[in-house]
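Quick one, probably user error.
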């Protein structure tokens, strides 16, 4: 009989044997920036998460800086929405101004921007719309404009989350043409049409006005198709590929890690966060232990980068 318990005898040897260790640099923290002044709106379904106006951002940016995490991911919520989502690529759009603010005041913070139109369009879809159809190729130039304008404002990395076909190639070409050959693209490659995004759509005010996103986001039943999506984004020039959501898709994450020698990101999404928070508030689970277990599972499955609303708490708990 082999005695596995020899290497579990006490805390010292358990620490030596630990295969997966979380580090603050593993985490990217999402931040919601809203137009206006003196705004610090709590998001009801995401306890601990707020929408901040730019003049209130420093409160959270100070904590991000202190935690020395990998970076932030910005989501903008404009005052005005229109069918083309024009605030997404306006020079003085709320996200562009937030990026400039962070770039000036917090040079040490790595800024990732989510590139998608749904927070900016009046219909709430991630692309241009004709009737009830979400158009693919017509959407690409808008995504390119958005990516370029955010990088011009000072963003370090762009993360297209729209799931239009061909967006990575289009954005790569647009960035290169604008002289941003060194700006990486983190593609939301296998993004599933998921009920786990519910709380986010309250936070980002981005719920679709009609229909749903199933004509562009993936069917959650499809693991093999996820690998094809990932391969396509790699071929189009993605620097990092992402699987989203996290916990219900760790099989996809693991298979991606085994199949492709690419840096992997995973998005631990709003609904996953809300479920943990809700159970913890009732005293039904131990939040700290559950969160560290979940995040460790994501890293163990192959994630290099974990985008998570738990980032700042996790760093505190890691000590
Ligand atoms: C925008 C976008 C979404 C999320 C990230 N970028 C929502 C969606 O596709 O409806 C979800 C993030 C989360 O749930 O935390 N396309
Ligand atoms: Zn979107």
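Nope, works fine. Designed sequence:
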């Amino acid at each position: 009989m082999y005695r596995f318990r020899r290497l579990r005898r006490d805390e010292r040897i358990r620490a030596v044997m630990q295969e997966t260790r979380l580090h603050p640099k593993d985490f990217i923290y999402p931040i919601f920036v809203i137009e206006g002044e003196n705004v610090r709106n709590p998001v009801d379904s995401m306890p601990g998460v707020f929408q901040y106006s730019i003049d209130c951002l420093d409160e959270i940016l100070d904590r991000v800086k202190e935690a020395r995490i990998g970076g932030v991911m910005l989501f903008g919520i404009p005052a005005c929405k229109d069918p083309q989502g024009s605030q997404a690529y306006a020079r003085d759009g709320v996200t562009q101004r937030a990026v400039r603010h962070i770039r000036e005041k917090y040079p040490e913070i790595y800024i990732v921007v989510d590139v998608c139109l749904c927070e900016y369009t009046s219909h709430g879809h991630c692309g241009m719309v004709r009737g009830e159809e979400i158009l693919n190729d017509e959407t690409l130039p808008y995504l390119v404009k958005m990516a370029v304008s955010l990088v011009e404002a000072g963003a370090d990395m762009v993360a297209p989350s729209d799931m239009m076909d061909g967006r990575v190639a289009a954005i790569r070409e647009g960035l290169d043409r604008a002289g941003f050959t060194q700006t990486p693209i983190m593609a939301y490659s296998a993004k599933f049409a998921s009920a786990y995004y519910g709380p986010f759509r309250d936070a980002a005010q981005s719920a679709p006005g009609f229909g749903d996103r199933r004509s562009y986001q993936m069917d959650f039943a499809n693991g093999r198709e996820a690998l094809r999506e990932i391969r396509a984004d790699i071929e189009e020039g993605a620097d990092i590929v992402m699987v989203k959501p996290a916990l219900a898709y760790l099989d996809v994450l693991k298979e991606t890690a085994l199949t492709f020698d690419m840096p992997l990101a995973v998005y631990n999404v709003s609904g996953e966060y809300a479920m943990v928070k809700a159970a913890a508030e009732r005293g039904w689970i131990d939040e700290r232990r559950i969160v560290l277990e979940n995040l460790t599972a994501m890293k163990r499955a192959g994630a290099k980068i974990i985008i998570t609303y738990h980032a700042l708490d996790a760093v505190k708990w890691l000590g």
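Residues 32 and 75 are 5 Å apart (CA to CA).
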